[in-house]
Design goal:
79 residues; mainly alpha; Helix Hairpins; 3 helices; 53% helix; flat; mitochondrion
């Protein structure tokens, strides 16, 4: 996802609450040749931001939400 800092809008009236953290991840990845391991701290900052808001409130958090749903499905299937 290309980062357009400050321009991701929810319903055209609300700025995405975790956009700043998403942009920081993009900057970090670009600065570190897209090695995720070098950006774990900023990724965790985004996870912390996402945890503060209800599901669906932040577009940039949707990837984490899908990841969590898949993890829950796998847990349920293995029981």
């Amino acid at each position: 996802m290309d980062c357009v800092c400050g321009r991701v809008l929810m319903d055209m009236s609300q700025k995405d609450p975790c956009q700043k953290q998403a942009c920081e991840i993009q900057k970090c990845l670009q600065a570190n040749n897209y090695m995720e391991s070098k950006c774990e701290a900023v990724i965790q900052e985004l996870r912390r931001c996402c945890a503060q808001y209800p599901k669906g409130r932040s577009v940039v958090c949707s990837g984490f939400e899908k990841e969590d749903e898949e993890r829950q499905k796998l847990k349920s299937a293995s029981k």
